[in-house]
Amino acid sequence: MKKNKYIYLFTSVLVSQFFISCNEDSIDKVNSTIPYESIGGYDNSDEIAAANLITKVSFENNITDSKNGITGGTGTAVSYAPGIKGQAYQGSSSSFIAYSTVASSLVSLKNITVSMWINTTPHTGGAQSLFMLPKTTDFWGNIFTMVEGTGPANTMLMKNHIQKDVTPSIPWSGQFIEHGGSNLLPNMFGSWKHVVWMYNGANSTYSMFIDGKKLDLPASIAKRYASDPQTGGVGYGDLANSNVSKFIIGGFQQHLGAPWSAPDGWMLNYTGLMDEFRIYNAALTDNEVVALYKLEKDNR
């Protein structure tokens, strides 16, 4: 009788292990990795125009540009907070990041796409600079984006600045592109917004996307002319950066010290959050911008 009891117990253990093994196999099959559905033909954000991506700063508790377009970074009063994808740069009234070296791929841009996520609130007292590619011989620098502290509380006045190709008849090469007046950007405060702007030197056109949606801009903003188009004016053509020195995120070139003078009172540091800062040396397609927005939002 005792022998039969042992046989019964041994058989029970074998049967139990069999079912446990089967259950584990079932669990493994259920928990196996399920591929993400591609968006716009891409599986992750870094696949988009990969050959044209020259600067990417993700702010994962560091200020490193993973593409080496800007290097030698030094942070002033830099901190981090939860972002749209991992961590994000947290600005303040004294924060900025200075990069000492700019790669030739960034200096020699002829076309550009700038992409970033921002989360900020209205401010007063001047303009906050999101980033700037400085110029040692010009007060305004080469390329930058700034947010003005004016306008109704729920709209953002944003200015982008580029250096266009220069002709002998045009002594100053800087060009402001202003989203003001009837083109103020609505509902930009208090939540994460994906901001993309680009300039295509081949056809002298400018465009902007907010959260993957292309803005319907008037010709006065979208098409950049070197002279009055009504009298046969031609487009600005390729970008033409010059006398480049350093790079700054969260401030103006004047925050970098010599050879620039001290910043004017209206020149403010960016106080909001910023994440996934990218620069491409090409104007992205509409599909690429939409895919970039959706993939980064999906943490890919």
Tags for this model:
300 residues; alpha+beta; Jelly Rolls; nine-stranded mixed beta sheet; 4 helices; 32% strand
Describe the structure.
The protein is of the alpha+beta class and 300 residues long. Helices cover 17% and strands 32% of the residues. 37% of the residues are buried. It has 4 helices and 17 strands. The protein has 2 domains: 1-34; 49-297, Jelly Rolls, CATH 2.60.120.200.
Number of strands: 17
Our measurement of the CA-to-CA distance between the termini, rounded to an integer number of angstroms, reads 64 Å
Number of domains: 2
Strand content: 25-35%
Biggest β-sheet description: 9 strands, mixed
Unreliable sequence segments: 5-33, 166-173
Helix content: 10-25%
Q: CATH fold name of the largest domain, please?
A: Jelly Rolls
Shape: globular
Overall pLDDT: 85
Under the CATH scheme, the architecture of the largest domain is: Sandwich
Oligomer: single chain
User: Rg, please?
Assistant: 26 Å
What is the string of helix and strand elements?
HEEEEEHEEEEEEEEEHEEEH
CATH hierarchy class name of the largest domain: Mainly Beta
| Number of H/I helices | 4
- Helix/strand structural class: alpha+beta
